[in-house]
Specification:
The complex is a heterodimer of chains A (about 110) and B (about 110). In chain A, a hairpin with a 2-residue loop joins strand 5 and strand 6. Chain A has no helices and eleven strands. Chain A is mainly beta. In chain A, strands 2, 4, 5, 6, 9, 10 and 11 form a seven-stranded mixed β-sheet that branches. A four-stranded antiparallel β-sheet of chain A has the order 1-3-8-7, with no helix packed on it. Chain B is mostly beta strands. Chain B has strands spanning about 5, 10-15, 20-25, 30-35, 45-50, 55-60, 60-65, 70-75, 85-90, 100, 105-110. In chain B, the strands form two sheets. In chain B, strands 2, 4, 5, 9, 10 and 11 form a six-stranded mixed β-sheet that branches. In chain B, strands 1-3-8-7-6 form a five-stranded antiparallel β-sheet, with no helix packed on it. Chain B is globular. The relative contact order of chain B is 0.35. Classes of the chains: A mainly beta (about 110), B mainly beta (about 110). The interface of A and B includes residues 91, 101, 102 and 103 of A.
C-alpha cells in the first residue's frame, strides 16, 4: 500500500479564494482524520470520519471549513473563503480502529494564504 | 490545552549518545503512543504502550509508562544523525478518535 496520499503538497492562494485539500486513506482503514498543525497551536484534530460518516467535527474552527468523504477512498477538506490565519500544514491520517492502535499520516499539505 | 506535554522542548546531543524525552498527561488513558516527524513530513508511528504496561522496547527505542505519575518517557539509545526529528506523544483516553498530541520535543543529533 502506498500509504495515505494527500494532494497538493503545497498550496499558495490569495485571501478569499476557495481551497480544496484531498486525501486518499489506506485501503481497509475505516477511520479518516483531518488535522491541522501550526507552531502556535500544535496538532489539532479538525474532524474525523468512520465508514465515510462524519463522527466528530467539533474541531472545525469555523463554518468556512467543511469536509466530505463521498466514498471509502477519498476525502476533501474545503476552506471557503480562505484567510491568512488558515495558513498551516494540514494532515490527513487513517486508522483501522479509531486510532487505538495508531494513526498513519499522510505527508501533509502546506497551505499559505496571502 | 493539550493532553500530552513533552519535555524538553528541544534537545541537542552528539551522535552515539542517548536521548531521553518525557511526556506528561492529565487524565486517565488507555494507551500512549510516540510518533516521529521529520522536517516537512507527516508523523510516523513509533511505538504504543498500553496502560497496563510499564516498559516496552523496539530496536533502539525504550518507552516507559508510569500511570501513577501520568508520565511516559522515550529513550533513544546510540543516537544517529538520522534520528534528528520532532517526537510527539499521543494519549488515547479510550474515547474513540479523541487521541491528543503534545507539542513535541525537537531532537537534533550532531554527527
Amino acid at each position: 500500500d502506498a500509504g495515505v496520499i494527500q494532494s497538493p503538497r503545497h498550496e499558495v492562494t490569495e485571501m478569499g479564494q476557495e481551497v480544496t485539500l484531498r486525501c486518499k486513506p489506506i485501503s481497509g482503514h475505516d477511520y479518516l482524520f483531518w488535522y491541522r498543525q501550526t507552531m502556535m497551536r500544535g496538532l489539532e484534530l479538525l474532524i474525523y470520519f468512520n465508514n465515510n460518516v462524519p463522527i466528530d467535527d467539533s474541531g472545525m474552527p469555523e463554518d468556512r471549513f467543511s469536509a466530505k468523504m463521498p466514498n471509502a477512498s477519498f476525502s476533501t477538506l474545503k476552506i471557503q473563503p480562505s484567510e491568512p490565519r488558515d495558513s498551516a500544514v494540514y494532515f490527513c491520517a487513517s486508522s483501522p480502529d479509531a486510532g487505538v492502535s495508531g494513526y498513519t499520516f499522510g505527508s501533509g499539505t502546506r497551505l499559505t494564504v496571502v | 490545552s493539550q493532553q500530552g506535554e513533552e519535555d524538553p522542548q528541544a534537545l541537542s546531543i552528539q551522535e552515539g549518545e542517548n536521548a531521553t524525552m518525557n511526556c506528561s498527561y492529565k487524565t486517565s488513558i488507555n494507551n500512549l503512543q510516540w510518533y516521529r516527524q521529520n522536517s516537512g513530513r507527516g508523523l510516523v508511528h513509533l511505538i504504543l504502550i498500553r496502560s497496563n504496561e510499564r516498559e516496552k522496547h523496539s530496536g533502539r527505542l525504550r518507552v516507559t509508562l508510569d500511570t501513577s505519575k501520568k508520565s511516559s518517557s522515550l529513550l533513544i539509545t546510540a543516537s544517529r544523525a538520522a534520528d534528528t526529528a520532532s517526537y510527539f506523544c499521543a494519549t488515547d483516553p479510550g474515547n474513540a478518535g479523541k487521541s491528543t498530541f503534545g507539542d513535541g520535543t525537537t531532537l537534533t543529533v550532531k554527527p
